[in-house]
Amino acid sequence: MIRRTLIGFAVLAACLVVAGFLGQIHRGTDSISILRPVFGVGCAFGALLARSFWLRILFGGIAILAVVTVSVHFLPQGPGGDIRVYSKNLGHRNVEMQEVVADIETVGVDVVMLQEVTAENEYILQALQVSFPYQHLCRFSGRIGIALVSQHAFAGDPVCSDRRALLAAPIALGDQQLWAVSAHIPWPWPYDTAENEIASMEVLSRLDGPIVIAGDFNMVPWAGRVRRVMALTDTRLAGPVQPTLYFKGVPLPIDLVMAPGGGAVETRPLFGSAHMGVVADLSVWSP
Question: Quick one: three-class SS letters along 199-228?
Fold first, then answer.
């Protein structure tokens, strides 16, 4: 009886692993994919408990699929050398802006992407004005905004999505040009945020040239949302991906960085936010 019950849970886990790959059909499956590592463990137990050879093969195969598609994102990559970026969800109630400013200036980056820029913490842009004179802020919901500041001149007008999702700015980097994107896409299902993700895709589809993206995706790297963004922008995740937010003790890698050639990532302290900062050396044009 106990074995049958556990096998039933393993069947459910296997179904949920598979469902987590169906983000193109319904956004709810993206939320399901967050627990793919847990469901993968359930499938592994199913492989151990099942008496049928084919059932063991089925459970084992799905368990391996879950493990591989999650763990690959935690592998280190070669260092990128084309551009260095800093990204952080400031947290709308953050009062440690001086510490954030000091950290940004310490790590020495070309571009900074900031999320949850509010009336309370917006003065960080003024504090960064000398080091990062080229700035743009997209205001959303009348309060929370997305910002991007750069040491390098804008090569055109920055673009804001129609709904809170992202800010894209063309950056002149020497004799090259790229689009730098600061992203903050709200959590998907069960929340009514489909329009936000659609708005991000509409902007990204209009960008011509290489793109680097950093920000709070509110989704894990193996989810459909992240795959869709990478496919649309011809980018890959910089790594190793690391947890940047602890939700009720659960580590979530949701602050991500993408570039055409990927790159190397490190996390920075919280400094008054629920989100760690992320610094990445990215490969844009390098072979």
Answer: HHHHHHHHCCCCEEEEEECCCCCCCHHHHH
Beta strands in the chain (DSSP E): 83-89, 111-117, 134-139, 145-150, 159-160, 166-173, 176-184, 211-216, 236-237, 245-247, 250-252, 255-259, 263-268, 277-282
Q: For 210-262, what is each residue's pLDDT tens digit?
A: 999 999 999 999 998 999 999 999 999 999 999 999 988 889 999 999 999 99
Low-confidence ranges of the chain (pLDDT < 50): none
Residue 179: the pLDDT is: 98
What's the sign of the alpha-carbon dihedral 174, 210, 220, 216? positive
Nearest CA to 230 among 240, 242, 217, 243?
Answer: 217
Determine the Cα–Cα distance for residues 275 and 244; give it in Å rounded to an integer.
5
Structural domains of the chain, ranges and CATH numbers in brackets: 2-73 (no CATH), 77-282 (3.60.10.10)
Placement of tokens 């084309």 in the chain: 82
Token pair, residue 18, equals 């598979």
Predicted TM-score (pTM) of the model is 0.92
| Token duo for residue 239 | 């790594």
Given strand 263-268, what is the order of strands in its sheet?
134-139, 145-150, 111-117, 83-89, 277-282, 263-268
Q: How far apart are CA 257 and CA 221, in angstroms?
A: 10
Contacts of 56 (CB under 8 A, 6+ apart): 47, 50
Which residue in the block uniquely carries the two structure tokens 């001149």?
153
